Amino acid sequence: MNVVEVAELRKTYGQVVAVAGVSFTVQDGEIFGIVGPNGAGKTTTIECLEGLRRPDAGAVRVLGHDPWRERRRLAPQIGVQLQESALPDRLRVGEAIALFASLYPKTLDPRPLLEQLGLSQQLRTPIAKLSGGQKQRLFLLLALLHDPRLLFLDELSTGLDPHGRRAVWQLVRATRARGTTILLSTHLMDEAEELCDRVAVFHQGRIVALDTPSRLIARIVGSLRVSVRIPEGAPLPPLQSLPGVRQVRREDGTLIVHADDDRTVAAVVHLLVEHRVPLRELRVSSGRLEDAYLALTGTAVTREEQ
User: Fold this and answer.
1) pTM
2) Reduced to 3 states, what is the DSSP secondary structure of residue 205?
3) CA–CA dist 304, 306 (Å, integer)
4) What is the DSSP letter of 20?
5) Which CATH architecture has domain 2-211?
6) Model pLDDT for residues 198-255, shown as the tens digit of each residue
7) Between β-strands 16-27 and 2-13, what pairing exists: parallel, antiparallel or unpaired?
8) Topology of domain 218-297, per CATH?
9) What is the C-alpha separation between 141 and 108, in angstroms, rounded?
């Protein structure tokens, strides 16, 4: 069963085409990821699904409803964590939870959520006194409070330290285990690879690839990744001509080769040794979603985006 159905969605702002006819579905119970550089159309697409923006063209159905025309029917069934949110500075955490709980006939017990998100000691803390990461975790709690059928997460991990990210990831998995469908927009490729069943790669308002992370990696850049530190300007043998080599590039003094299998990796190393290329910090690892993303969009994920 499809929880979300999008067909030829289009949205423009004046002469700027933000979303240029995208189509996809989200299945019941899955975590569906949307990744792409800034300005790719991710947030605009999500806001159309949430009923916050009216599409210029195309068809959108969310839980059987038109989000724009049937917002009142849809709202109680979805949870939304926006890319940017705000609450009154003097409002306390406990008061915010009580306020949001009053909007729904039935809510979850917030205590386990507070514990898992590390906010148990902040119930009397004003919003203005929370750190950026604490605010982000609070908004996630508020989006989950009424136990929605569908949860929208736009830049879930913004402002979170590694420990906070892991705690949030665990909560997302537990939420899906309860039967909630999740649509996640993120700049963090490791987050998409870790959490998502399928990923849509957005670029310039279009979907350029849609598949499971593992299939995207295998199809676009190969299953294995060889990296080795090499001297600046060192000549390289014709690695790209080897069967099974998908991509060869230099990046900050490191040679990166994407390969299909172990045999290809062995051939790469043999050719480097044969041409007397010094092998420093040689590593072989699984292919990464970030590599596939870079190959598809030609755009690196920047620190600002992360």
Assistant:
1) 0.86
2) coil
3) 5
4) E
5) 3-Layer(aba) Sandwich (3.40)
6) 999 999 999 999 999 999 999 998 889 999 998 887 888 999 999 999 989 888 889 9
7) antiparallel
8) Alpha-Beta Plaits (3.30.70)
9) 10
